[in-house]
Amino acid sequence: MARKPAAKPKSEPAHCKIFVLDTNVLMHDPTSLYRFEEHDVYLPIMTLEELDNNKKGMSEIARNARQATRTLDEIVSSFENGIESGIPLDGPSKKLASGRLFLQTEAIAADLPAALPTAKYDNQILAVVIHLQRKHPRRPVILVSKDINMRIKARALGLEAQDYFNDKVLEDTDLLYTGMRQLPADFWDKHGQGMESWKQDGHTMYRVKGPLSSQMLVNEFLFIDGDPNFAAIVRNVAGKTAEFATLTDYSHPKNAVWGITARNREQNFALNLLMNPAVDFITLLGQAGTGKTLLTLAAGLTQVLETKLYAEIIMTRVTVPVGEDIGFLPGTEEEKMTPWMGALEDNLDVLNKTDEGAGDWGRAATMDLIRSRIKVKSLNFMRGRTFLNKYLIIDEAQNLTPKQMKTLITRAGPGTKVVCLGNIAQIDTPYLTEGSSGLTYVVDRFKGWDHSGHITLQRGERSRLADHAAEVL
């Protein structure tokens, strides 16, 4: 009697990948479990162990670890059958993901080179990836980690490893919106036909039609290289018609802002945004020495003390030290923040010297008045607050995650202007890159909104020494 052939094992879909998540991915984005679409997600037991070790405290990482744990609890408790066969994610993710979540339910023998200690969490996660690769030879098994060394180690063992890209706004920050557009020299020849022009509030307005008009964004600055007299800001775009207005020339001493004049084209653009009460949200990017803080403070002081548009200036920044932390500082919140606010002090010194007619007594009195209208606040106590009629400056904003940035910007109440300053080439926070920084995120998301503006400052205006150092060092 012939033997009955054994049933063929059910083939797995070869196109569906298995993504093994490192702990830092969950701590960076607690919703990352739902970001892998139709592919399966696998969590090693060591990932859960590390989440447990990092859940205590008030840091952003601890908060994210707790959030990731709560998300996992919702997923696991919503599934009543055995979890060995995987938990479908389409229900818990509200159709965002259609893959399955696998948790490590068996002990896996560490099949690693002898030089790698198996007691280390990272190495145990690598052992899981090797095991899965052998168990599912037809499916790509990919380790996802924010840790560069972990990815290098995985590749050295012949494993596929990737960074977590879902939170990246841009792959290449060279493509980031600069807030300005250089028009071709023949712009007026191609767009001048049927052009309308009129005066409004002291500015010349233009309405033009043409192919370039549809590409323009509201509050984008326009200039023509070789024509220093033309600079404008886009006010409205509808189809192939664009309206733009000429700018106030802040490089002229008669338009000085708290004694400060624009030294280059980008600074002039920035002051046009900062002094415009219709613009509620401004982002200024630029290297050290391009004048971000100085211009922002000068515009803030003018609008708080002279035009009385805002009640006071609130300045805050991310307290990430460049070197070792200096430990607990004595004093009130304002006094604790003082060492972080050296940039504020330096710029106030410059602004206080702009009034040459005042003597030492006059300057001291002005300084006291300025200080009474500038409050320095820590980011740690921003949750739940509402700022009414304030001029809020967020310095070093490149060190904020998109979630932290959202928390801060949503503090703004009626009549408040928010200005974010930063240099995305100087990120000090672990796991944040130029592409995933909260500053990059808001620049990209706010472009084209009627009440927001952005400018990338390019020329350093500190000193010939600072400019040369930026080039050669």
From TrEMBL:
CDD domains: PIN_VapC_PhoHL-ATPase. Keywords: ATP-binding, Nucleotide-binding. The keyword Transmembrane helix does not apply. It comes from the Bacteria. Residues 17-152 form the PIN domain. InterPro entries: P-loop_NTPase (IPR027417), PhoH (IPR003714), PhoH2-like (IPR051451), PIN-like_dom_sf (IPR029060), PIN_dom (IPR002716). GO terms for cellular component: cytosol. The keyword Aminoacyl-tRNA synthetase does not apply. GO terms for molecular function: ATP binding. Belongs to the PhoH family. This is PhoH family protein.
